[in-house]
Amino acid sequence: MHIGLELTEAGRIAVAAIQANRGRSALTALGIIIGIIAVTTTMTAANGLQNTFRQSFSSVGTDVIYVTQMPWVMMNDFFQFRNRPRLEMAHAERLKERLTGHAVVNPSLDLNRPIKFQSGTMDGVNVIGTTDRYTLFSDVSTDVGRFMSPFDVRFHRRVAVIGSEVAERLFGNVNPINKELRVGRYDFRVIGVMQKQGGGFMGGPNFDRQVYLPISTFINAFGDRNNNVDIAVKAPDTESVEDLEYRVIGEMRRVRGLRPGEREDFSINKLDSLVGAYNSTMGVVVLIGLVITGISLFVGGVGVMNIMFVSITERTREIGIRKAIGARPRSILLQFLLESSLICLTGGLIGVALSWLIAMAINATLMPASLSLPIIIIALLVSLGTGVASGLVPAIKGARLDPIESLRYE
After folding, report:
1. Of 2, 81, 258, 370, which one has the fewest beta carbons inside 10 Å?
2. pTM value?
3. Three-state DSSP class for 369?
4. Calpha distance 290→292 (Å, rounded)
5. Residue 226 has pLDDT above 80, yes or no
6. Where does residue 123 rank: exposed (0-12), middle (13-18), buried (19+ CB within 10 A)?
7. CA 41, 43, 49 angle in degrees (round to 5)?
8. Are 252 and 124 spatial neighbours (Cβ–Cβ below 8 Å)?
9. H/E/C letters for each residue in the chain?
């Protein structure tokens, strides 16, 4: 018999067997459904977290080097970093002079302060003192109004640019431009509202919950003795970042007065360090998730295998009849392999449909997430592979049954 005819006949018999035992087939597929939901949800959540991460730190910039007292990612030696001398505005100014014509340097200070507008109060807002060069380090600009100008910084003007969340929560439907905003004990005139950026991912900054002040005004109002200055250095292009990093390290050593052989008392941070830490963390999380889902699929596969053994035992006489009238062992093998594969593939399709609903719920409530085509294909291949693996041993047993002994089976 041609292989195509054998597959057609085996498929017809497999479908008929599944339909004849709908309840048992549904319960058998349940384990696969749960496993596929676990697999797809894990991968969808991982993709969603990755997208959220990229969105949260998109303003960090791949062509920017950040000089700080402590590294962004600390594995150990916290107290060693903590006891470093703080970075001061004088260091930022001297580094700016040394890098003039080679890179853009922008210092910033920040602290948390409650802010008020009329009777409304918002706690835990990140107040940042920076310069007009801040906009060169990010693609994000103001949505309403303008950002601070060199004039604002030079003449210590009490103006503020606020994040979108601050505008929504404190001002509501009121246009915040030229309104007086109280930061701590001081009043500032709002001159702009930043575009919505998102953030707050894995402890990162929420860029929409920030207030930007001219750094000169910030120092006058809050001082700088208890704060570390963060220094951002922007390379002319992404290709020159590595060369600029070595230059920044050398110039900062001179600025800090370090002798040859002395360890740096400052840290160089780039987006790569965040990406590396994220990938390491997410790799472990995804691995644990996949191990758990693998166990779930294994249990589901064992259930399918058990039911297939039961099915072969129940249909031993049928197998004997088929062999007696000329069916080859290959035909019996294909019949039961197709039956187990169809059960698992049906479970996979149902699992993918339910995962799509779960992904929509995650997207609506927690973070950007969607069930992509590669994830769907992987889920269906996994379910099909589980069906083949689970049905192989029972199918081989059925194919090897002796037709005479099978016909005698009661």
Report:
1. 2
2. 0.66
3. coil
4. 5
5. no
6. exposed
7. 100
8. no
9. CCHHHHHHHHHHHHHHHHHHCHHHHHHHHHHHHHHHHHHHHHHHHHHHHHHHHHHHCHHHCCCEEEEECCCCCCCCCHHHHHCCCCCCHHHHHHHHHHCCCCCEEEEEEEEEEEEEECCEEEEEEEEEEECHHHHHHCCCCEEEECCCCHHHHHCCCCEEEECHHHHHHHHCCCCCCCCEEEECCEEEEEEEEECCCCECHHHCCECCCEEEEEHHHHHHHHCCCCCCCEEEEECCCHHHHHHHHHHHHHHHHHHHCCCCCCCCCCEEECHHHHHHHHHHHHHHHHHHHHHHHHHHHHHHHHHHHHHHHHHHHHCHHHHHHHHHCCCCHHHHHHHHHHHHHHHHHHHHHHHHHHHHHHHHHHHHHCCCCCCCHHHHHHHHHHHHHHHHHHHHHHHHHHHCCCHHHHHHCC
pLDDT of residue 179: 92
- DSSP assignment string, 87-155: P-HHHHHHHHHHTTTT-EEEEEEEEEEEEEETTEEEEEEEEEEE-GGGGGG-S--EEEE----HHHHHT
Instruction: Render 264-279 in DSSP notation, one character per residue.
Output: PSSEEE-HHHHHHHHH
Instruction: Give the whole-angstrom CA distance, residue 122 versus residue 113.
Output: 9
pLDDT at 20 over 80: no
Using one digit for the tens of pLDDT, what is the confidence trace for 149-206?
999 999 999 999 999 999 999 988 889 999 999 998 899 999 999 988 765 555 556 7
237-240 long-range contacts, CB within 8 A, separation 24+? 237/63, 238/62, 238/63
**Which tens digits make up the pLDDT trace of 55-102?**
666 566 678 888 988 887 766 666 667 778 888 888 999 999 988 888
